Every structure is written in C-alpha cells, then in structure tokens.
Amino acid sequence: MMIILSVLKFIGIAFTVLLLIDISVIGMVFLLRKIIARNQYAHQYLLAIQGGRSMEKYQKQQK
Q: Per-residue b/e over 41-50, b at no fewer than 16 CB within 10 Å?
C-alpha cells in the first residue's frame, strides 16, 4: 500500500512540475510577443517623427 501511495505522490509531483513549466513557457511567449509588438509600434512612431510627418501619413505610406 505504501509503495502505491509513494508512486502516486511522485507522479502527482512530476505532473504538477510539468504543468507549471508549461504555464510559465506559455506566459513567457505571450509576454515576449507583447514586448515585440510594443517595440514595433515605438519604432514606427520614431521613424514617423524623424521623417517630419504625421503618424497618419506614415501609416498610409506603410499600407
């Protein structure tokens, strides 16, 4: 009986650890995507200012 319980406990711990790693990886990817998207917007805005144009004109040119 004790062996079965210890095996179940080990499986439970392993499963929990894997689940936590999975969640953290997904979270990291999500955060990285957000950061990259923000940086792209900031870069576009800076380019628009450097060009001496309004943001709207720059966006129209991009399309």
A: eeeeeeebee
Structural element, H or E, at residue 53: none
pLDDT in tens, 26-40: 888 888 888 888 888
Rg (CA), the chain: 24
Helices and strands of the chain, counted as H and E runs = 2, 0
Question: Is position 49 within any domain?
Answer: yes
Is 32 inside a domain boundary? yes
C-alpha distances in Å from residue 57, one per residue of 34, 36, 50, 60: 25, 23, 13, 5
Note the maximum CA span of the chain.
77
